[in-house]
Design a protein that fits this description.
7 strands; 39% helix; alpha/beta; 10 helices; Rossmann fold
Amino acid sequence: MQVYSTPKAIKENSNFTFCPGCDHGLAIKTIAHVIDELNIRENTIAVASSGCSVFLYNFLDVDCIESPHGRACAVATGVKRAHKAQGNNKFVFTYQGDGDFASIGLAESMHSALRGENITAICINNTNYGMTGGQLGPTTAMGQITTTSQNGRNREYHGFPIKTAEQIAQCEGTCFSARVALYDIKNIINTKNTIKKAFEYQNQNLGFSFVEILSSCPTNWKLSPKESHEKIKTELSQIFPLGVLKDVKND
């Protein structure tokens, strides 16, 4: 993989609209590399939801649908099933934030996995609601200060953060669940390979595949891009361990 090359699945003349240091751009580029390698661009339909993930269609040169907040997996299910009923085996994936996938849309996400819908979900976990002001989200770490947890997340008032990849791995319809990060070249390459495996499992009709990506949010974390990646490396990856949580071919 040429990490710094421009994939064919990225639209030409795209203007970066994310905050400086945000990992969304890198995540989208990594997905585009996988789409190129699998040669599935013409057959792919992406479903993005509200939040920073909604900018996906500005960059990725595939058919994209914008879903209501939290409903990406439900929309993707409908898209996949409707095309299948017409004899078309479209490749369908969602691109969502952690608040979208694991809070507002938790029911849609979890039940898609329980049903074993043959779609792939990608969740960008930056531990807050990034677009709307940095509020506490489902994955906000214990003690983390946000605009709605000024004294830090605490057990008594907010409860514990959800470990999304672990929860999805428990669903019997899930064929693959993993957590990755983008804080250095080694992990970028691992993220690409992990997404590729999740996509390949959908092509093999194995069920629901899921990849959680730990992502930086320098603006709301009030850190520099370098400090944000260091935070993921030394703090968040300890709370949310990287690795494969479920793989039906190896379990």
